[in-house]
TrEMBL record:
It is found in: Cytoplasm. It is an enzyme of class 1 (oxidoreductase). This is Dihydrolipoyl dehydrogenase. Belongs to the class-I pyridine nucleotide-disulfide oxidoreductase family. Binds 1 FAD per subunit. Residues 353-462 form the Pyridine nucleotide-disulphide oxidoreductase dimerisation domain. Keywords: Cytoplasm, Disulfide bond, FAD, Flavoprotein, NAD, Oxidoreductase, Redox-active center. The gene is lpdA. The active site is a redox-active disulfide bond. Gene3D superfamilies: 3.30.390.30, FAD/NAD(P)-binding domain. Its main location: cytoplasm. It catalyses: N(6)-[(R)-dihydrolipoyl]-L-lysyl-[protein] + NAD(+) = N(6)-[(R)-lipoyl]-L-lysyl-[protein] + NADH + H(+).
Length: 474
């Protein structure tokens, strides 16, 4: 007879491992299955985010920023440094050390919370049993009252630009270049393309980003996207919009690209090509044919507003279901599902999930864009404030960007906040809290903000909604 659990979680990424820990905290006997292995070939918990996504990319972004600052930001402070060089072994090694610290940390959290880990691939069988296939091919079956599917996502591969792990790479490959490529091509001007493109541009690569959509960062507010595009261009990111890749061929002298834009067919040769055109739900071999769990037209697991699949005791969360593919969204779904299983009141507010792009300057937003509100016929008012008028930002030599706040024209309830500038990945949290509490722009305007801080831009933007900002003309 197979071992019995209260909860089995398939996947140990930010959605799965968080769900497992919360379920165990609630007194449920919990198992978590994952097949991810680290660079050393050993099991590595944390999924894409900790191994080849959020954490390693931020490590490289920070390292590359230090290098960029030497030549571009320190001179204005009166600091000069000689011919700076980078040891690529140390550069990549620091990232790997951070990854190992955090993946190992999840193992310790599992141990502390009495979560039983299984290393291998998990397949849901009828009746809430799960077949585990280990790396050696051996199979075992465990069962539970509830199964949470948290299988995550994988990069989308283009049929005419297949990943070879050397010349044409996905996000994982772009984190491990042995040397700085002289010419880097990036397909897709989304979060991954912009962040990893920024890393290697700062390190000295010539970076060309090819984006099929006509508008830059169409998911963000148009005013914020415009500022971001201007700053990225200043840094040397060559972003070609409304350009569709037709062909990528690896030759001795590099990857030969053929793409089409408004001027017709164009050619480009690069040393490395990063394909970052999005991700898709990973459900390969996840479900036996008779489980009753259904997928939508995009291959995502169908769930209701409570992340339930419609099959008794089977839930799904994270990148494998509808909604934004964000680690924190998956984590909160994991907590909510664990609490629903335990008979408690779980909750995820999808309207206030913050989005962040960790470029320089950073981009962050939560809630509705101005275009979305206009299209929906919602009456609104807007306030904005530039970081150029914020003393702390000027003192930091990072006085680029702005905070834009949108409130309902009649109730003043905050409907969306959009930012580009220094530290906005942290500043957005204040706005999310205000939105969660159904706050108004006046609420934020009346809160005392410390001076001098970057957060004063949020304060002034809130004041600006009613045309009463102090440090700019309204």
């Amino acid at each position: 007879m197979s071992e019995q659990f209260d909860v089995i979680v398939i996947g140990a990424g930010p959605a799965g491992y968080v769900a497992a820990i919360r379920a165990a905290q609630l007194g449920l006997k919990t198992a978590c299955i994952d097949a991810f292995t680290g660079k050393d070939g050993k099991p590595a918990l944390g999924g894409t985010c900790l191994n080849v996504g959020c954490i390693p990319s931020k490590a490289l972004l920070d390292s590359s920023r230090q290098f960029w600052n030497i030549a571009h930001n320190l001179p204005v402070h009166g600091i000069s440094v000689g011919d700076a060089k980078v040891d690529m072994g140390t550069f990549i090694g620091r990232k790997d050390k951070i990854v190992k610290q955090f993946t190992g940390g999840i193992g310790q959290l599992f141990k502390a919370n009495k979560v039983t880990p299984f290393f291998g691939t998990g397949k849901l069988l009828k009746g809430n049993s799960v077949e585990i296939t280990g790396a050696d091919g051996k199979k075992e079956t465990i069962s539970a009252t509830n199964v949470i599917l948290a299988s995550g996502s994988v990069p989308i591969e283009l049929p005419f630009a297949k990943f070879d792990g050397k010349a044409i790479v996905d996000n994982a490959g772009a984190l491990d270049f042995a040397e700085v490529p002289k010419r880097l091509g990036v397909i897709g001007a989304g979060v991954i393309g912009l962040e990893l493109g920024s890393v290697w541009r700062r390190m000295g690569a010539e970076v060309t980003i090819i984006e099929a959509l006509p508008d830059f960062l169409s998911v963000a507010d148009a005013d914020i996207a415009k500022v971001a595009a201007r700053e990225f261009a200043k840094q040397g990111l060559d972003i070609k919009l409304d350009a569709k890749l037709n062909k990528a061929e690896v030759k001795k002298d590099g990857v030969h690209l053929v793409y089409t834009n408004k001027d017709g067919e164009q050619k480009l040769v690069v040393d490395k090509l990063l394909v970052a055109v999005g991700r898709r739900a990973y459900t390969q071999n996840l479900l036996a044919d008779d489980t009753g769990v259904k997928l939508d037209e995009r291959g995502r697991i169908l769930v209701d507003e409570h992340c339930h699949t419609g099959v008794d005791g089977v839930w799904a969360i994270g990148d494998a279901v509808r909604g934004p593919m964000l680690a924190h969204k998956g984590s909160e779904e994991g907590v909510a599902v664990a609490e629903w299983i335990a008979g408690k009141a779980g909750h995820v507010n999808y309207d206030t999930i913050p989005f962040v792009i960790y470029t320089e300057p950073e981009v962050a937003w939560a809630g509705k864009t101005e275009k979305e509100l206009k299209d929906a016929g919602v009456p609104y008012k807007v306030g904005s404030f530039p970081f150029a008028a914020i003393g702390r930002a000027v003192a930091m030599n990072e006085a680029v960007g702005q905070v834009k706040m949108i409130a309902h024209a009649e109730t003043d309830r905050i409907l969306g906040v959009h930012m580009v500038g220094p530290g906005v990945s942290e500043l957005i949290a204040e706005c999310v809290v205000a939105m969660e509490f159904k706050g108004s722009s006046e609420d934020l305007a009346r809160i005392v903000h410390a001076h001098p801080t970057l957060s004063e831009a949020v304060h002034e933007a809130a004041l600006s909604v009613d045309k009463r900002a102090i440090h700019k003309g309204n």
